[in-house]
Amino acid sequence: MDKHTCRNCDNHFSGAYCNKCGQKLAHRITMGHLAHDILHSFTHADKGFFHLMLGLFKAPGKVAREYIIEEKRKRYFTPFQYLLIIGTIATFIVVNSHFMENAMKIMTMADPADTKQAAAMQQVSYLQSKYYNIMILLQLPFMALATFWLYRKYKLNYAEHLTLHTFITAQTTLISMLLMLFIFITGRDVNVIRFFMTSIWLISTAYHIGVYIQFFQQRTVGGFFRGLLSYILGMVLFFVSTVIVTIVVVFIYMMIKKALH
Fold first, then answer.
1. Rg of the chain over CA atoms, in angstroms?
2. Which of 29, 174, 179, 205 has the fewest Cβ atoms nearer than 10 Å?
3. Could you give the angle at the alpha carbon of 106 between the alpha carbons of 189 and 190, nearest 5°?
4. What confidence tens digit (pLDDT) does each residue in 64-121 have?
5. 119-150 burial code (b ≥16 CB/10 A, e <16)
6. Residue 91 near residue 135, CB atoms below 8 Å
7. Closest-CA residue to 89 (of 132, 135, 49, 125)
8. What φ, ψ does residue 17 adopt, rounded to 5°?
9. pLDDT tens for each residue of 7-34
10. CA gap 52, 67 in Å, rounded
11. CB neighbour list of residue 161: distance below 8 Å, 6 or more residues apart
């Protein structure tokens, strides 16, 4: 059998993979190899992007449990990569469709309010659209903290809870993105927008609870209410923290502005 020298660690080995560092037998990068690697990472039957996407629709709690607790990681696309890809696509769609700004504009037109308040809401919507991927990521630590507290008897560390919510956040973002696209296509009727905005919230809530029940294997009424409480607690922590940070930033801005004048 032919002997090869690993380009990564200089180990001598036989076969297609280095038995020391695991690197595959190296080859020159060509357009053909590049196209194959990109396609392979998305469509590979065991660990491709679409394999994970389908699994998170069919049995999300089972997928997360296998990855985090049972340590069957080779078969799945990396959750943080998955979230970053989904978040990037979602941000592109939200920014270029002006969905949030249009939705807020229609909502304020249907329910007239103070002009300054409406303008402020529009500004908030613009910032949420522009930094949609950051808003997605900012939720993770608070949602993870909630399950870390309420499911502490399972003795998972905080990083494992964070990974669980990486799976959940990625998939709920994908679902929200699909619903946003549907709203954008179907028109700007205020009742349609209100219905689907409510639907996004309800589906996200139900998805979180379903994953918690499956992942922690609590298929009981108590498991349902613990999942609901965990979701509410995570969102409250995120909201309160966002408000506090916003107040602090505005206060600092006003103090600097006052000092300069």
1. 23
2. 29
3. 30
4. 999 999 988 878 888 888 998 898 888 887 777 666 655 555 555 545 555 555 555 5
5. eebeeebeeebeebbebbbebbbbbbbbbbeb
6. no
7. 132
8. -130, 145
9. 788 888 888 788 888 777 766 556 676 6
10. 11
11. 144, 145, 147, 148, 151
Distances in whole angstroms, Cα of residue 114 to Cα of each of 2, 127, 185, 250: 78, 20, 30, 21
Q: What is the DSSP letter of 155?
A: -
Look at the chain and count its residues: 261
* Residue with the two structure tokens 């008897």: 153
Rounded distance between C-alpha atoms, residue 193 and residue 102, angstroms:
10
CB of 145 within 8 A of CB of 237? yes
Give the residue from 152, 137, 30, 28 showing the smallest Cα distance to 90. 137
Give, to the nearest 10 degrees, the angle between helix 99-110 and helix 79-97. 50
